Amino acid sequence: VQHGMALVFWSLLVVYSDKNEVKQQQYYKDQQCCLAESFLREYWDAKEEKWHTVSQTQGWGTIDRRSASAGRATIVDDDDDQKSIVNSETYYYRAVDQAVALLACLVALPIVKAEGKTTTTVMEGVITKTCQTLLGESGGFGYSNDDRAKSYINLTRNRNFWHDGWVVLALLGAEQRGYLEEEEQIQIRELVHELVLRYGHSSSSSSSSSSDDDEEAEELYDGTLWHWSNSLKPNENNVRYCGDNALWYAIRQNLKYDDDLKEEEDEAFRDFVQSLLQPQESDDLATLVSVADVYPQVRLHPNTELACLLLWHFDEFFVGSS
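RE: above sequence
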């Protein structure tokens, strides 16, 4: 994730830097192309056609050699839903890695292409395949259908909005660049609707996954989202992260559809962020937010996520790119 975002930001540095500073501009472009090539080499598995969490130099990530976020070793789910133990060379894959890598390639590609790099053709194919992997059910993460979507392949983990949200934002970027068919665009909007039912925050303490309660869930939804599914954890055991809700805000700003609740959702988001502001010893730090509604600690990551996602507009990222 962090390396993908680094490529995103370096690419944006090229986009927004002073075009009159020719020497400096070329330096930024050269470095960006170098980063893009290294990113593909280290994290894209051309054989499996998926992105790894751990770099190739570090041996990629297997179920017995995981990144910290993957947790303890777990029995995997086969395609036929039969459980089996796999050897230490079985790789696992995360939806969020595919999503952030897709965003990185989408933002980097116009610059790589303009510089005439041979990476262009590879990156175009990788973008198409990553979209297919995120949406597809056979060998993919299944986000074309909310009921069958999953955050991990070869590891059993509960879904959460962090994975789902980055997937949606990345696919919206792919849509903006013309990589999604009309049917897939419809699927994304259906998924967004299902995410409201799955994660929508309300003051009600009840949680249910029955279809009879879907209308009630929509009515009670206040514009902010839980991290865990309503059906997985009741309100008292759930959490609303600053980063999750900043991500939800960015999704709604980049989603091309009529939303009657937009003003209410925007107001709810602003109120939520306001509630996270923590008093600081210095007035210069008075506007920093905490991690979440139940975690009052002020940390760097929720503040950088908030600043980044408030300004996340694909219309501006892709200006002037072919």
